[in-house]
Protein 1
Amino acid sequence: MPKDQEYQPLINNPTDDGVPPPSKPAWTSHFSRTVLAGLLIVESIALAATIFALFSRVPPASYTVALDSQRVLYSPALEAVEHEVQVYHVGFASDLSPFQIPSSPALDRMWSELYNFGISRITKDEAARLPNKTHAIPGDDGHYIAELDVFHNLHCLNKIRMALDPDYYPDWRISTSNNYIPTQTNATEHVAHCVDWIRQSMMCNGDTSVIVWQWQDFQNTTMVKGNVAHTCRKFDKIQDWAKGHRLQNEYDPTVHIEDDIVVPILHNQIP
Ligand SMILES: *[C@@H]1O[C@H](CO)[C@@H](O)[C@H](O)[C@H]1NC(C)=O
Ligand SMILES: *[C@@H]1O[C@H](CO)[C@@H](O)[C@H](O)[C@H]1NC(C)=O
Ligand SMILES: *[C@@H]1O[C@H](CO)[C@@H](O)[C@H](O)[C@H]1NC(C)=O
């Protein structure tokens, strides 16, 4: 029986003396007004509890969400994007990353292996879908030059790292008074460009992974815990894409090739 019919008398006639109106089913007259009021309260509580339980129930996978509806600018490397959970190294003595070794040929090699294949060749169809126009590769018909920004970011961070150890990397010593740079016309300028590029990249990517505080028995205090889970793009997949799209010949930047690719001007909005 629907409950609005069952409880209508109390709601409609709050001041009556408990005598049901003629249209009421006869059995309701056996209930005293007090009993009906009690039932109403009990059911209201049960309903509230049910609603609360429905909304507060935590499904097992509630620590992930779908972001399918997002649109992003085209990149030929989007096909390589896969996600995974990664826990960062904290980077202090108890949890150093393999990159935290002194400047050395071994460290230079590790950095180089992150991005030394980072200039790519893409097809004309792919180039035509880019939000910015890029140039054809002389001597590689139908192919265009491209660099994924992650590799430029890594190159930039590597230069900042070198500037921080000027005794080992004298070319990257930054100083306006003593700036002898055989390979760089101005390392100060290059490093400043890199710092600001990485700032923009971090703000662009806005990592919302959550760093937490946890209780430490041995210190009787809560402490910030850096080794938390992050949603990451699988770096090795993006590396594989770049390795599969390596330039096949030396790129000659002095050759100008005209083409018919026209890209639309976007005004900050994603199409
Ligand atoms: C290098 O660039 C910095 C920053 O733009 C500038 O202040 C400095 O004068 C430049 N140094 C030389 C030697 O050109
Ligand atoms: C932490 O607090 C507990 C309870 O007060 C105490 O027994 C313990 O000695 C404290 N430990 C440290 C390292 O201060
Ligand atoms: C790249 O495209 C954006 C959006 O249309 C535009 O604002 C920007 O000036 C372009 N940059 C180059 C180098 O073409």
Protein 2
Amino acid sequence: MDLINGTTMIIDSHVDTPTQLIRYKRNIGVVNQEGQVDFPRMKAGEVDGAFFALYTPPEMKGAEATRHALEMLGATYDACDEYADVAALAFSPDEVAQNRAKGLISVMLGMENAEPVGESLSLLRAFYRLGVSYVTLTHNADNAVADSAAEGTRWGGLSPFGREVVAEMNALGMMIDLSHASDKTFWDCIERSAAPVVATHSCCRALCSHRRNLTDEMLKALGEKGGYVGINFYPYFLSDRFDEAKAWRPGVSEIVDHIEHAVALAGVGHVGIGSDFDGIDDCTPEGLGDISKSRLVLDEMRRRGWAEKDVIRVAGQNLLDVWCRIVNCSE
Ligand SMILES: [Zn+2]
């Protein structure tokens, strides 16, 4: 879809700001000293939108997890209401375009860790109706839906209920997010999902050995299925060198290395930016202290000779395109 008329539109596929809204009562309408995301800094960085992840920690279970997700959802709605002159929720790619035409930042909703859904497809549908457009199936623990990259022992991939979740998400047009998933969960979803799948905040394992980064085979499969990977800015996922010697931090150069590697395997239409800002404590890459700096990644791509049309794709077009493809599969 041609939403952006040849201009750069930055859309981040994963920030953890809802946790900050409830944990620290962050006022997202002013410039904050803490954390990495607020509306003024998004504006300053010409960031047109971001998926706000409703993140549930692995130790939170059952009804407590559901309540927690709803509280973050409510806080995100409240923040968008309070600053309605600056930002608005977007439940579809068309609404992103409409918001942009009005000069508004788009706030999209994702759920990180399917625990709040419990074992209920009705709850999944309820969250979808409230605007949750993707579900990151797991965080750092196996859950009722699937195994996580950090554990990976409970089901050997998707659980029987997880297979129902995948089918239901396909029917609804919800994006299946495989960041944090175990390798087996990833391949189960590649096999079973009727729609493309995404990894909203993941890096390349060939460049950094962290177990939750994607292998070359996974990147290739993601592209072949019409999916998407948003490259994560967390230094631990960008470079093994950071883990060994913290005096040095990876920066825009390493991020673009991951983007270029992912593009080589998945294709230029299947890679974007999923910073993980507000989910990485104060561990930010060199020179990228907050979301106002994300555009420096695009500058580095231009410096390396990328065609502007491809910079535009990675900046946000690819994410909107995969979202459209997934919605279209459900119709
Ligand atoms: Zn995450």
